[in-house]
Amino acid sequence: MVSAVFHSPLGGQPSPPGAAAPGAAPHAKAVPAEPAPASKPARVPFDWRGLWLKVLPPVIGMALMVGIWALFTMNSKTFPTPAATFEAAVKLFADPFYSNGPNDQGIGWNILFSLERVAVGFGLAAAVGIPLGFIIGRFEFINRMFSPLISLLKPVSPLAWLPIGLLVFKAANPAAIWTIFICSIWPMVVNTAVGVQRVPQDYLNVARVLNLSEWKVITRILFPAVLPYMLTGVRLSVGTAWLVIVAAEMLTGGVGIGFWVWDEWNNLNVKHIIIAIFVIGIVGLALEYLLITLAKRFSFAD
């Protein structure tokens, strides 16, 4: 290996490698630069305006309703005031699950019995309505066969089906479930069929070219595209089912929030009737919010 030798331009001994030239200022020892401190991310200010826009309007709306209610019941001897209704609600929900026999149970048990009927009737409607909607939307002949029947039966009032249920089943509980079933099936059938019919024809043409079976067409192509329509039908159906069960239980009796409202009316307990109205609304709102959250979770939109 040949070592490099540096010759001084003024003559004399060669300078060894790394030595400074004569007369040159000595170089300072290089100091490694310290890494720059990481910059902290800019702090995003809290959106107080957005929070107020979400919270304030509902609070003002509720306060306005209570204020009008208090104003109109100020001198009333028949209709309870908001304060009296609130006191009754505190006592009522202090023990919502008491049971003193089949016809004297707390409001909590009545809500659960109503939800059970809604779940059974709605579940049967979904098991029948969603596949039927796929078939109606997929096959033109079946669509033309069922469309007049759906158009004829869908506008019928749900309570008009209750006597048919009582005649067939000879009992109040299955008659109420039948009423929920027949009134909640139509939104699922119609929305699912519309979703199937709106699937782009190009998708089906590709499935035909690939010689896919009908089952694969439904599971791989139709179901993902139809899911948003189907969930919309489910949301509409569960709202209708909860609306109908209250009226059905008023007529059939037994245990349930509808029967509880009617029983409180027979006792002239208006405070409990108002409480039940709020409870029915809150439960219905919770069911709808749950299904909206589910629909957003399974949405394929960006």
Description:
By secondary structure, this protein is mostly helical. The protein has a domain at 86-94 and 106-297: Orthogonal Bundle (MetI-like fold), CATH 1.10.3720.10. It has ten helices and no strands. The chain has helices spanning 48-72, 82-92, 107-138, 140-153, 162-169, 172-197, 201-209, 214-252, 257-266, 270-297. Helix 3 packs parallel to helix 6 (172-197). The radius of gyration is 36 Å and the shape is flat. Mean pLDDT is 82; it is low at 1-15 and 17-25.
Poorly predicted regions: 1-15, 17-25
Per CATH, the architecture of the domain at 86-94 and 106-297 is: Orthogonal Bundle
- From N to C, what is the helix and strand string? HHHHHHHHHH
How many strands appear in the DSSP assignment? 0
Mean pLDDT: 82
CATH topology name of the domain at 86-94 and 106-297: MetI-like fold
Structural class: mainly alpha
